[in-house]
Specification:
six-stranded mixed beta sheet; Enoyl-CoA hydratase domain-containing protein 3, mitochondrial; Lyase 2-enoyl-coa Hydratase, Chain  A, domain 2; 270 residues; globular; 2-enoyl-CoA Hydratase, Chain A, domain 1; alpha/beta; 11 helices; transit peptide
Length: 270
């Protein structure tokens, strides 16, 4: 029996409308913790979406009062009974979760987190990994591993690439919760909206992006993350090549012509 079939109810729901795929974490009784099944199903779904030309943007939300409480500590603790006290399992778990996070970054379509309630540890990592994030004003963010003797090292990777070093270190070292307003000020989320409206706002955000050329969006998203890992001169050389190649695309030609002719563009996504 695999991790997904081990649960009676799939821990993730998907619905599609207007070019937007909405994925909803659906283990509210476990505060949507990232158990083995959730990680596997989320990664599998992202892989399917990557090849789905009908999907132009993705929204990631959650059922219940918590967005995601991080890894499933009960599931992890049960592996202490393994002959190696769980070390092989823990290493494999972190590799699988890291691969799923990287699948979000590699996805051609933008991913927008819609956060209500708490997003802690790997849940906070999930928000930081998404390309954009909308938070209800009741949302709280934390990397509280230090309180239980477990530094949030993998969430640190996403946080340190989204926040200033001082802000990331403050969250990681103190483990204290950060309000939605403070998360916005720090750059962890793009917008703060009235509680209960994060999903609606994120979907409207997504529909706006879905109206753009998918080729252009995929090109830009890929280039954004690639250049961010480069030195300044290398980044400019790379971005110049990407932009010149983008200019040769049919959608760039159409978009420029439409602007000059003062008409809406007709995207062909090529």
């Amino acid at each position: 029996m695999n991790a997904i079939s081990a649960l009676d109810v799939p821990p993730l729901r998907r619905s599609d409308a207007d070019g937007v795929a909405t994925l909803v974490l659906d283990r509210p009784s476990a505060r949507n913790a990232l158990c083995d099944a959730t990680i596997a199903l989320l990664h599998e779904t992202l892989d399917a979406i990557a090849a789905d030309r009908a999907v132009r943007c993705v929204v990631l939300a959650a059922e219940g009062p918590a967005f995601c409480a991080g890894h499933d500590l009960k599931e992890m603790t049960a592996r202490r009974a393994d002959p190696d006290r769980g070390q092989a399992y823990f290493e494999d778990l972190m590799r699988r979760c890291s691969a799923m996070m990287q699948a979000i970054v590699a996805l051609p379509q933008p991913v927008i987190a819609a956060v209500e309630g708490v997003a802690t540890a790997a849940g906070c990592q999930l928000v930081a990994t998404c390309d954009l994030a909308v938070a209800g004003e009741n949302a709280r963010f934390a990397t509280p591993g230090v309180h239980i003797g477990l530094f949030c090292s993998t969430p640190m990777v996403a946080l340190s690439r989204n926040l200033s070093r001082k802000h990331a270190m403050e969250m990681l070292l103190t483990g204290e919760p950060t309000s939605a307003a403070e998360a916005h000020r720090m750059g962890l989320v793009n917008r703060v909206v009235p509680a209960g409206t994060a999903l609606e706002t994120a979907q409207a955000f997504a529909r706006s992006i879905a109206g753009r050329s998918t080729l252009t969006i995929a090109t830009g998203k890929r280039a954004f993350y690639a250049q961010a890992e480069m030195g300044l001169a290398e980044a400019y050389d790379y971005a110049a090549r990407v932009m010149a190649q983008n200019m040769m695309a049919r959608d760039a030609e159409e978009g420029i012509n439409a602007f000059v002719e003062k008409r809406p563009p007709l995207w062909e996504d090529r």
